[in-house]
Structures are given as structure tokens and as C-alpha cells.
Amino acid sequence: MEKGSMDKSNGLRVILFPLPLQGCINPMIQLAKILHSRGFSITVIHTRFNAPKASNHPLFTFLQIEDGLSETETRTHDVTLLLTLLNRGSESPFRDCLTKLLQSADSETGEEKQRICCLIDDSGWILTQPIAQSLNLPRLVLTNYNVSFFRNHFVLPQLRREMYRHLQDSEKDDLVQEFLPLRKKDVLQIIDKETEVLDSYLDMMLETTKASSGLILMSCEELDQDSLSQAREDFQVPIFTIGPSHCYFPGSSSSLFTVDETCIPWLDKQEDKSVIYVSFGSIVTISESEFMEIAWGLRNCDQPFLWVVRVGSAVHGTEWMDAIPKKFIDWLHEKGKIVNWAPQQDVLKHRAVGGFLTHNGWNSTVESVFEGVPMICLPFVWDQLLNARFVSDVWMVGLHLEGRIQRNVIEEAIRRLFSETEGKAIRERMEILKENVGRSVKPKGSAYRSLQHLIDYITSF
Ligand code: UDX
User: Fold this and answer.
1) Ligand 1, from 218, 249, 282: best to mutate by most atoms within 8 Å of Cβ?
2) Ligand 1 centroid vs 357 CA: distance in angstroms?
3) Do both 60 and 84 map to the same domain?
4) pLDDT at residue number 77
5) Which domain holds residue 151?
């Protein structure tokens, strides 16, 4: 049984439809646990690709639909292409599945009768709004971005067209007024890999969000109050900021990868706040030379390290990973531990972890803040660039590598983060931010109240 769940149903059912990416499945399943604990029954519709493990959540109903992806397409690293294909291939199966669910709920009688009150799905599902609308079902949008990125990223196509093709070197560190606190070089990195295909996708996402019944974010006023007020004006729909969703039900059980738990006993043997944890989430891939620079940087610094290297996907070319000389791995293991996939939330909570070298996916960023772990930012794509700027420039709870994946730069950043001077100031600021965010999810806190409003809102449909 999900921890903290209530036995008593409130007679209402919520349909959830996560995008099949780890960074989207985690918050959606967390939201499912929260809603279930408040008496809602849960149905999760999911694609065949990256299907969540239903057996981990016996109290939820899981329904699989076809997504139309070929075997080759499931292996693409192009997220925009993947999302476009998923939206195309899932449309008709999703419509059929939702229609059947509503029809069978209508035909139920007696005490078992439940009302389906709404659909909650990711902002990246642009197919769902017209379908929900045609079936008279309110739809709420969940986004796994921070508020500021979500409200501003619709301007990216315009930035690509207007200004960033011929940027002078002297301008690269300038702030982007339309997208603070990004710098122009960050925008260059974001749009570098994006094509025109994205433009129409973003237009649709904006349109379908505005047409929805509300927006749910895993953030809180304490993290970005200004953007929140602006987002309320932009979208003109109710906005709920429920805080870091993982904090209500700690411990991740929605992992698509096999979790290597051996890192916890290894951490138990390390000194307090001595370990640098390294992970770049579920999507980022690095090159062979980048792997080697990080390896040398970690081996040369004074701290023990725990490094997540997703076998077969973290480094371009599986064969190369298999070909790393065992001697080199043994040499790395003298100073640290490498795992395929870690129980990240438990790792960040562990007393031995003192820093996080991260790609700044939004989940990783808020999980780190929630546990008060200072960061070294190495963002690669998309919202990660903005999250990293918040960490280094706004909250000032981490250092930024500015994209330099070089052994001496990494080694120096780790030394600075753990130092008694600069590192201490960062740790103190992180402690304050952690307390503020922690308070927001406690009763009377801003995120806690927003969650209550969300529950009341859904119940009112
Ligand atoms: C994606 C995008 O890349 C990111 O930019 C966006 O903000 C969210 O969606 P991802 O790259 O996977 O996500 O990163 P992140 O948002 O950090 O999510 C990763 C999740 O996997 C976190 O919840 C983290 O706790 C979990 N994780 C990661 C593990 O449980 N174990 C690991 O070893 C690594």
C-alpha cells in the first residue's frame, strides 16, 4: 500500500497520462500518490514505450495504449522528434481509451460508482486537450519545468529568428531580458540543437495550456515568486505550485532503470558531507572524451565520488563503454563508486553527500535543494540551462562550470565547493533555501496550501 494512503475513497477518480520519460514519470507518480492519499482513485494511462512498473503501485489502475513507435524510434536521442512521434502515434489509442473509461464509469451503478473528475497530463502531450474537451472532461496540465522556463520558453523560436545567429563574443555573457536570468550564450546552447519542428510544437503547447483548466508545477513561491505572478497573468488559468512533489512520499518507486542500492552501504562508510555525487539524469549523453575528462577530474580531486553512468546510454556508443580498460575502472574505484542508476533521493539525503555535480534537470535541482546539497552545474540542454542559472546566479547555492568539461576545471570546482571559504558561504545560503522550501510543504506553508487548493479544485469538477 502507498505510504500514508487512506482506505476511504471519496468516490472520485482521476486519470493521469505521463509522458514516457523518467523526468516526467517521477513527478506524475508522486502526484498520483498525493491524490490517492486524499481519497481519489487513480487510473494511469501510459504508452507501451517506457511503461511504468505497475507492480510497484498495486492500488493504481494502469492501462497501456499503443504509441506507434518503431523499435528504432524508441532509441532516438532527439527528444523533440520523440515527442512529435509519440503525440502522433498515441492520439487515436488515447481517444479510444479515454472514451471507453468515461462510458464504463457512466454505466456503473450502486456503491461502486465513481465519477471521473478530470484528466491530468504533461504539458508535452499536445494531443489531449481537444480530446478531453470533446468529451467534456476538465484537463489539468502538469509541467516538469520550473515556472520561469515554462512561461518563457515559448519565446525561443522568436529568439532564434531574430538575434542569436550572429552573436558577437563580447555579448555572450549579456543577460536576455525576455528570458531572465539566462545569458545569451545559454540561449545559443538551447537553440543550437533545436529545429523549426519545435516551433509549431511550442505553439500548440501554449495554446493547449491556455485552454486547459489549470496548471500544476513542482515549485513554490520560495523558489521563484516573480515568475509565478507573471505566469498567472500569461496563462489566465488557475496555477498550483505544490512544491517538490517527491517530498510528500520520499523514496522513488517509479524508476525505469534498475536501481543499484549498493551505493548506500558504500556511503555509510564515508565521512559526513565528504562525497561528491555525480549524475546527469535520464536523457543526457556525453562523449567518450567528456567521460574521460570527468573521470580524471573526479580522480584528481580530494573528495570521494559516487558517479551514475547509465550503461548503454550515458556515453555515446555502448561498445566503447564496454571497452574501458578494467584497470582504469579499478583505478577510479580506489577513490569512488560508479553505478548504473542510484536511488537518487536517498543518496541526496545521505549525511555523507556534500555536493552534487548535476545536469540540473528540474527534478534533480529541487531534490538537491530540498536536501540542502550544494551543486556544481553542468547543464547540457533545454531547461537545464535556466535551472543552472537559478542555482548559480539567483539562489547562489552552487558553482557553474560554464560548459567547460575539462579535468582541471572540474577538479577546481569540487575543491571550491568543499572549501572553507567560498564553499562555506554557498553551504550557508543553501541551508537557508532548504529551510524555506522545507517550510513551504509543511502545514500552512505556501506549497501545502496550494496543494489543498488543487484538491478542492479537482473535487469541485
Ligand atoms: C528531463 C529533462 O532532461 C530535464 O531537463 C527536465 O527538467 C525534466 O525532464 P532528466 O534529464 O531525467 O529529466 O532529469 P531530472 O529532471 O533531474 O529527473 C531525473 C529523475 O531521475 C530524478 O527524479 C532523479 O531522482 C531520478 N534519478 C536520476 C534516479 O532516481 N537515479 C539516478 O541515478 C539518476
Assistant:
1) 282
2) 13
3) yes
4) 83
5) 12-251+441-460
Provide mean pLDDT across the span 111-119. Answer: 89
281 and 344 share a domain?
Answer: yes
The reply to whether 371 and 446 lie within a common domain is no
Structural domains of the chain, count: 2
Ligand 1: does its nearest atom lie under 6 Å from the Cβ of 123? no
Let me know whether 108 and 18 are in one domain: yes
User: Do 401 and 409 touch, CB atoms closer than 8 A?
Assistant: yes
For ligand 1, atom 4: residue with the closest CA: 361
Do residues 194 and 284 both lie within one domain? no
Ligand 1 pocket member 18 (CB < 6 A): no
Give domain status of residue 257, yes or no.
no
Residue bearing cell 522568436: 158
Among 27-41, 153-167, 242-256, 306-320, top mean pLDDT goes to 27-41
Name the closest-CA residue to atom 15, ligand 1: 361
**CA separation for the pair 245, 67 (Å, rounded):** 27
Q: Tell me whether residue 110 is in a domain.
A: yes
Nearest atom within ligand 1 for CA of residue 358: 17
Residues 269, 124: one domain? no
Place of cell 583505478: 331
Q: What are phi and psi of 132, to 5 degrees?
A: -60, -40
Q: What b/e sequence results for 99-133 when a residue is b if at least 16 CB atoms lie within 10 Å of its CB, and e otherwise?
A: eebeeeeeeeeeeeebebbbbbbbbbbbbbbebbe
Q: What is the CA(341)–ligand 1 centre distance, in A?
A: 11
Residue 371 maps to which CATH number? 3.40.50.2000
Domain presence at residue 4: no
Per residue in 59-112, pLDDT (tens digit) is 999 999 999 999 999 988 888 899 999 999 999 999 999 999 999 998 888 777
Measure 421 CA to ligand 1 centroid, in angstroms: 31
Q: Residue 426 carries which DSSP code?
A: H
Q: How far is the CA of 12 from the centre of ligand 1 (A)?
A: 31
22 ligand 1 Cβ < 6 A? yes
Report ipTM for this prediction.
Answer: 0.98
pLDDT mean over 146-173:
87
Pocket of ligand 1 contains residue 383 by CB under 6 Å: yes
Residues 427, 404 share a domain: yes
Strand partners, 400: 377
